[in-house]
Every structure is written in C-alpha cells, then in structure tokens.
Amino acid sequence: MTSNLRRYVLTVILALAGGFAGAALWSASGMADKRTEAFLLGTPDLLPRMAEAYERDQGAARLAEAGGAVTTPFPGAVLGNPQGTVTLVEFTDYACGYCRQSQAIVEQLIARNPDLKVVIREWPIFEGSDQAARMALAAAKQGKYGAFHNGLYAAGRPTEASIARVAAAAGIDMAAARQFAGSQEASFELARNADLAQKLGFSGTPSWVIDGRTIEGAVPEAALQQAIEEARK
Fold it and tell me: Which CA distances in Å does 214 have to 25, 67, 101, 184, 199?
C-alpha cells in the first residue's frame, strides 16, 4: 500500500468516525467532494478491505525485518511434515485456552495437508506456563515434541504434576529434561520467541505466520486452510 493510500484510509476513517473534528479533517484533506462521498457510500466494504490490505502490508514489512528466524524452528519443535513445502508458524502458550482449542485444528490441518510443516514457537505469557514451555523444548531436544505438545494440551491447564505426568508418558528422560529446562539455551529460545512476537506486533496467543502473512488470535480451520492453499500458489 502506498503512503498516499495509507493517508487516505486514515483520513476517511477519521472523517466518518470523528464527528465535527473528523469533518474538519475531511474538508482539509481535499476530498470533501460529493462524488467521493457517493462512491464511499456505494461501496461500504471498501474501508474494511483497505484496512485489511494495510494490515497485510504491515505484517509483510515486519516479517521482512525479522528475516528467516521466524520460520526456522527450534530443533525438533515441529509438527506435521518436517520437510513440508508449506510452513505454518504458531506462537503458542500451554496455559492459553484458545491455543488449546487451536491444537485440534492444527492436527486436522496436518491430516488434510501432507505437505504442511508446522513450526511451533513457545511463547509463555500466562502465569505458570514457563515451566511447560521449557519442558516442551526439552522434549524437542529428545525427539518427543509431538507427544508432549499434544499430550499437555489434552491434559488441560498445565500444572507441575500434569507436566511431569505427560512428560513421563511421552518417554522423556526426566533427569536430562530438567537439566535442559533450566539451561541458558532454553532461556535464550524463549527470549528469542518473545522478541520475534514483539517485532511482528503480536499481543497474545495464538498468533500465526504463513506465506508472508501474520494472523493474530484464534482462527477457524477454514481460514487457515485457505491460507495454506494460497501459499501453494
């Protein structure tokens, strides 16, 4: 989106939503024209489409700034096809209810799309989720990520007991896992994910990246499936 179009969107929104102040801005913009007004009234979906295009543009710019770090997974923290040609990135938190709901959607997407690689970025932002995220990274180190990730979401909100129980069920070496969970490597990965989330403008989990687009919040399966199909083109 050009800078002129961005100013256009802002001016129109202010004009429509700002009462007298908005009307003054509308007039000052030079667009106080009956033909422009008629056009806008005749195309009520224009502003939402412009706003959506602007958000896509901003997301692409942020992704370009972050580089390939977003789609490069922590070793082992991948679901689906590790060599898949379509990559979906999810920033997630085990204490997030919407993330728990999204886990089933991700599993369905994996089942429907054998070329899908899902990169999970552990981003513990809720109270009590840091321990779960660290154990997940330890599970990834041991090649047990999928079993732990899915098992912990199935267990509900994480607790010290449920984390230990799910880790044991996944076949994780607990002594090695606890040692890694407290390591600088684990801390660095969590800090990096938080930094990436900030750079991408995410305010919470779940948040997604696919094909140069950023998507925030719980998303219906159909919307993610459409994004996957568009990424193939």
Answer: 31, 14, 19, 29, 11
In this structure, what are the phi and psi dihedrals at residue 226, rounded to the nearest 5 degrees?
-65, -40
Q: Which residue has the tokens 């060599």?
A: 83
> Tens-of-pLDDT digits for all 233 residues of the chain?
444 445 555 555 555 444 444 445 545 555 556 666 666 666 666 556 564 555 555 555 655 666 678 999 999 999 999 999 999 999 999 999 999 999 999 999 999 999 999 999 999 999 989 999 999 999 999 999 999 999 999 999 999 999 999 999 999 999 999 999 999 999 999 999 999 999 999 999 999 999 989 999 999 999 999 999 999 98
Question: In the chain, how many H helices and how many E strands?
Answer: 11, 5
Q: Taking the CB of residue 14, how many other CB atoms lie within 10 A of it?
A: 17
Sign, CA dihedral 227-50-7-20, equals: negative
**DSSP-derived pairing of the beta strands 116-122 and 86-92:** parallel
DSSP designation for 18: S
Report residue 219 as tokens. Answer: 């998303």
Q: Which residues pair with 214 in a beta bridge?
A: 209
Contact 229, 90 (CB under 8 A): no
